[in-house]
Amino acid sequence: MKELVIVSGKGGTGKTSISAALACLAPQKVMVDCDVDAANFHLVSGATIKETHVFTAGFQPHIDEQVCTHCGKCTDLCRFGAITAGVITTPLNCEGCGVCAFNCPEHAIAMQEKQAGHWFISDTRFGCLIHAELGLAVENSGKLVSKVRQEAKKIAAAEHLPLIITDGPPGIGCPAIAALSGTALALAVVEPSLSSMHDLARLADLVAHFQLPIAVCINKSTLHPENTEQIRTWCHSKDIPIFGQIPYSDTFRSAIQAGKTVLEVSVGDVTEELTGLWQNIASRLNIPQNDSRLDLLRRKFNIFR
Amino acid sequence: MLISIASGKGGTGKTTLALLLAAAHSQITLIDCDVEEPNCHLFLQPKWQGPGQDITIMVPRIDSDRCNGCGACSAVCLFSAIAISGKSALLFDELCHSCGGCLLACQQNAIYEEQKIIGTLMTGTAAAQPGIHLVNGTLKVGTPSAVPLIKRMKQESSQLTGDILLDCPPGTSCSMVTAVKNSDFCILVTEPTPFGKHDLELAMNITHLLQIPTGVVINKSDAAGDENMEAFCTSRQIPVLAKIPHSLSFARQYAAGCIPADFQSIAATIWQQLKAERSAKA
User: Fold this and answer.
1) N or C: which end of chain B has fewer CB within 10 A?
2) Which residue of A has its CA nearest to B138?
């Protein structure tokens, strides 16, 4: 199975809209939303949660009041300013390193596993979606990204699905790194704004750092034709293929309002460009563009789908 | 007054609003906390003061002559940043939180700390608006955690007096929390769509947890979604400070790296409300 991840660097360039459109076009796939701290894919795919799982990651200190002598050793050793003489004064500063627990002369502190969010398996109009919700102000977004990817791979393997479509997080930090590592293709969605172009260059550096294949989709291309031209020239100079160029359209916004993908509310330019984008991706990843008759039959009779 | 500008969803207009508010102020510091993808400098074209300062974190290193492979360091590392292989320890810097736990655990004194560069901090003054002082952090590509860099930027500015704007990273995870934490007021920028609303709610939960007074600015505002969004803000008892209309011509100017002057009155309205908030606090 191949993993396609849709990323952007800058937020709001259209990752989720384009991921959803691709999910609508691809015949056999599992979908994953790796933007675990601001997930939106379920809002445009009509998701119904089938399974909810607790995600635990990291640790938090628990202090035994009976044993603690408030000696203050933990205060001295904690580099994050989270604890004062056996009292967790600023829990949000605590990174769960356990230095207080391991070095407490009275052994008054125990490290407990921490609940860090939930992940879900949902049914959508386009098939199975794995998504998540990070706990309130907790760390470990990168680990949760890895978790949802791992679950999606299991499902894809069990059902012999050739493709995983991953809606990635913005930025180039741990969640983006966790979403990108080892994928078959990173599709970078860029808009012709100076901000997005600047952010694409940093994203491309990150992708090169991990030696992953990358392709670009220019979204809202008609917003600023000169910048669009500049992106094309830049991609050419970097040997990065451009798989799609989608004109600016208010349909994207009305589709989100309606809880649908852009393909379900529009015909014309946008649909044509998105179909072209999907064809380029499918041939690059060497996976079927449409359902064959055999696949259709197999899917029809597969009660576990 | 320390004012953070955050959003949950990316691309709703945090940087735009930060720049609008900065331009309407006579003397202000703008800290670009979106260190993964900093953009304020593209609009301000600042005159940088000096070449910038490398920001480092401390990471452990092993003295292989002293290490006997006992595994005490690996056993206490809750981030799995140390693995034992034969008679030596392997380090994974990307996973390290610089807690110093391994140093304390090692009985052989075989672990020492070294500085590792995670990014650069630069300051400058906006070319066209000398009243705007920009603090810009850039995370080194490949570095997983932005948190130490954001912390340092906020520390550097803790001596400053006067109004400070923080342009925060998107999302609601640790970098956003680090950026928003300890601010006197948080402005959440949203767009009136189901995406905007969903992520706004997550961001509101964070500012509520941090006990930071919060207001909302609806960007790309239009008749279709505003009513719903305003009702939602009312239900959460969070004021809508202003609305910035959905405009293609504005999007074009933004694309070219300009912030249009048309919206000065909006910035003035927001400042009025922020000042009221400040005097209420004092």
Assistant:
1) C
2) A202
For residue A21, how many C-alpha atoms fall within 13 Å in the half-sphere facing its CB? 30
- pLDDT tens, A138-187? 888 899 999 999 999 999 999 999 999 999 999 999 999 999 999 999 99
Distance between B276 CA and the closest CA of chain A, angstroms: 29
CA atoms within 13 A on the CB side of B189: 28
Give the bridge partners for B48, in sequence order. Answer: B124
> pLDDT of B170-216, one tens digit each?
999 999 999 999 999 999 999 999 999 999 999 999 999 999 999 99
Q: Residue A301: pLDDT band by 50, 70, 90 thresholds?
A: low
Chain B contact probe: residue of A8, A10, A189 with most B CBs at under 10 A:
A10
CB-based contact A243:A277 (threshold 8 Å): yes
Is B209 within 8 Å of A137 when comparing Cβ atoms? yes
Among A3, A29, A1, smallest CA distance to A183 is for A3
Give dist(CA A156, CA B120) in Å, integer: 41
Residue with tokens 């014309």: A268
The Cα–Cα gap between B161 and B163 comes to: 7
B172/A134 touch (CB, cutoff 8 Å), yes or no: yes
Burial tier of A283 (Cβ tally within 10 Å: 0-12, 13-18, 19+): exposed
Say whether B129 sits in a helix, a strand or coil. coil
pLDDT the model gives residue A297: 63
Which chain A residue shows the shortest CA-CA distance from B169?
A171
Residue range A67-99, pLDDT digits in tens: 999 999 999 999 999 999 989 998 989 999 999
Cα of A17 to nearest chain B Cα, Å: 11
Measured between CA atoms, how close is B210 to chain A, in angstroms? 9
Interchain contact, A97 vs B78, CB within 8 Å = yes
**Is residue A176 within 8 angstroms of chain B, CB to CB?**
yes
pLDDT confidence of residue A48: 97
A92 touches chain B (CB under 8 A): yes
The whole-angstrom distance between A287's CA and the closest CA on chain B is 30
Residue type, B259: I
Higher pLDDT: A267 or A85? It is A85
Measure the CA–CA gap between A288 and A209, rounded to whole angstroms: 30
Residue A305 scores a pLDDT above 50: no
Put simply, the answer to whether B195 touches A16 (Cβ < 8 Å) is: yes
